[in-house]
Amino acid sequence: MNKPDCKYGAECYQQNPAHKEKFAHPVKSVAENSTVQAVTSNSGNMEIKKRSMETLNQQLEDIKRYKRLSSPEKDICYSGGKDSSYEYHDLTRQRYAVPKVPMSVGILRDIYDSQIEFSQQAEYKELCNEPKKFIKHKFLVLMPPCFEDLWQFCQVQALKTQIKPEETFLQFGLKLVGPYDVLAGKFDRAKVHEPGDYLRHWRFFYDPPEFQTIIVQQNSGVHYGYWRDSPDNTDGLVAWNDVKKGCEFLIVGENIFDAILHFLGNYASVTPFNKKKISDMKKLISDWAQSKDIALNCCEKQKSRKAQIVSKTFHKVGLVVPYDRKTNIGYRPLLESDEKIRAILSKFENLNRFENNLEYQELMRELQPIITAADLATDECDFGTVLELALDFFCSGVKSLHEVMKPLFFTGYSMVNRPQYIAIIKSHLDNRREGINLNLLAGN
């Protein structure tokens, strides 16, 4: 039986056996390859003509001399022993062809297929009856145990005060959102949205794929959420960010109760009328946590994670990727310092690439050696480098670089086996909204 041709043809990136069996993938002829090479060569020549040969040669020489350092940024918590979190199975540094990841929704096909099937209204209603499955399908991540623990706490308080569980902390200006909207039944009668819409639900401007908002302070940019270095991580680390102040995040605890206490101790508006209520709530949380054997204000997981960080990144929480400290495989520092990269990125601010294309292309020539060096690092198994660069571009907030950072994210997350984050960053960059009104359900 003749199989239909894959729309990507010989350039298809998918390795799924079912996909290979379903679609035909014609092999490029020698003539076709020659044509592609000729077109590529002509395009390259046109670009080279725009530059002076002296500058180009110098850039190429700089990249050729780009070598890895002996290890990533040193930290007092780094261990010199074997990193037990990752196994490399005799992985050696070898150059290989990195798959070309297309910047289209095609890369999300495998992730979204199951979601699209659920997008029929009948199946959607059935999915709403299983909150865990709903969260996994719509948000693509797993929730840590403390997520349900806090909900149980709120249900108990709701019975005492005759309010809804999600309103437990409203008296202090704090609101449960995101996946808590699922537990509160707010999606039950909501219209069915496109898959990407769910991934943008309460996703603030500077929230990277590793962060998921679950609590917000009303009428402010302060929000808390889970920080996961990989989508299936359930350690329960919670982080804080104020989007109005910029891209920097702060790990504030190891469970959601730590986040509530952090807010009550640092951001709640204390008045003579609510001072006792705040104190009482802190005690209620402490007593509940103790009764459930939930440790508060611990830092063991944070210390363990800190030992795995390979670079600080602009968001300050750091990047964790598979890294072998004996062979130094998995990460190498960027070609330029953070200060130099920030200086270049600052030139893109308020620059409209369509109105000032020549200026934009001139600035891109400053970034290109850094991007090329990151691609070289990826070729040699240092996948963390391209992710660090992508995150730094993202944290700069420069929207004109969205199409530049997409392939960096796609390649990096593919190489470290985090495809869910590809879907999240794709959806976010396609509609990256500013402000604090980011509720998907607001229009229902």
TrEMBL record:
Recorded family membership: Belongs to the HPF1 family.
Cell location: Chromosome; Nucleus
InterPro entries named in the record: APLF_PBZ, HPF1
Keyword RNA-binding: no
Keywords tagged on the record: Chromosome, Nucleus
One GO term of the biological process aspect: DNA repair-dependent chromatin remodeling
GO cellular component, one term: chromosome
Keyword S-adenosyl-L-methionine (UniProt): no
Protein species of origin: Anopheles gambiae
GO molecular function: histone binding; poly-ADP-D-ribose binding
Protein's name according to its UniProt entry: AGAP010317-PA
Coiled-coil positions: none
Domain PBZ-type: 3-27
Pfam families xrefs: HPF1, zf-CCHH
Residue ranges crossing the lipid bilayer per the database entry: none
